[in-house]
Amino acid sequence: MLNGPAFFSTSTPKDKDDDDAANKASSSSITTSAIANKSDQQLADMKILRTLASYIWMKDNPEFRLRVILALGFLLAAKVLNVQVPFLFKLAVDWLTTATGNATALASFTAANSTILALFATPVSVLIGYGTARCGSSAFNELRTAVFAKVALRTIRAVSRNVFSHLHELDLRFHLSRETGGLSRIIDRGSRAINFILSSMVFNVVPTILEISMVSGLLACKFGAPFALITSLSVAANVTFTLSVTQWRTKFRKALNKADNDASTKAIDSLINYETVKYFNNEAYEAEQYDEYLKK
User: Fold this and answer.
1) Based on the number of CB atoms within 10 Å of its own CB, is 95 exposed (0-12), middle (13-18) or buried (19 or more)?
2) Distance between CA 152 and CA 167 in Å, rounded?
3) Which of 17, 208, 241, 293 is 20 to 30 A from residue 1's alpha carbon, by CA?
4) What is its main location (predicted)?
């Protein structure tokens, strides 16, 4: 005689326990795989950065090493001048304000800023110094870009040549199943990305950390540690938010790049096989197929 629970289910409690264990094992396997993939991606990113760093600092090319050192020197000079700009502007405003007030305020201001005022005779000279600091910062940035441009172009050339040579060293199976359009788009995109990565490594990440440290130190000396702490926490919050949004957007960017590669592959392959398309009068069909790839 069948009881109620057995009428609706023929599984035993042991079977259910086995299913739960299997589900937990599957979830654990998926989580472990995701962590492993993330770790592998981080290792791959670090390998890319180390490879590009070796191209920047070439042991057999003293000219390029000198250019890198000069570029970093110009960068440091630009950051130092850039930090001085607001202080010179403040000094000029304070001097002009107290100069139009009473003599006591002017004497107090002169005594408090005697060291700095020894470099400037009049408020006009302070304004000139302010303009010189701004122009000097911009000039050093331009010199940095000009000096480092040859290194960046040489790195792009070397990496592109190595990629091209590597493609010729691959076996026949790869070339028989090639996607010419997508491959050419990947090579082009990678070559253009090298310049961005080099600029970010040399001129954005480390210099920004240096500038934040200098500004935080000046704020701590002038206004106390709480102001420097607030500034550092604000920058840290901004960096955290930017990184999280960038990582979230990465999957959409990858999907966009894949769609772009597929569309390029379709276009190039269709043009390569132009005679076949014309022979079978498939121009309209090829156009529709290309449009479908563009919709993605």
Assistant:
1) buried
2) 23
3) 17
4) membrane
Q: Which long-range contacts (CB under 8 A, 24 or more apart) does 211-217 make?
A: 211/79, 211/82, 211/83, 214/79, 214/80, 214/83, 215/83
Which of 99, 189, 87 lies closest to 134, judged by CA? 87
200 lies in the same domain as 269: yes
From the list 91, 76, 210, the residue with the least C-alpha distance to 136 is 76
* Distance set, CA 294 to CA 3, 238, 281, 289 (Å): 60, 35, 22, 9
CA torsion sign for 279, 281, 284, 289 is: negative
What is the distance between the alpha carbons of residues 236 and 79, in angstroms, rounded to a whole number? 20
CA distances from 226 to 83, 87, 222, 229, 230 (A): 19, 20, 11, 5, 6
CATH value at residue 129: 1.20.1560.10
Indicate the number of domains in the chain: 2
Closest to 79 (Cα-Cα) out of 181, 204, 188, 197? 204
Structure tokens at 192: 């253009």
Question: pTM value?
Answer: 0.61
Q: Is residue 17 part of a domain?
A: no
Residue 204 DSSP code? I
Domain containing residue 199: 182-296
Structure tokens at 172: 């026949």
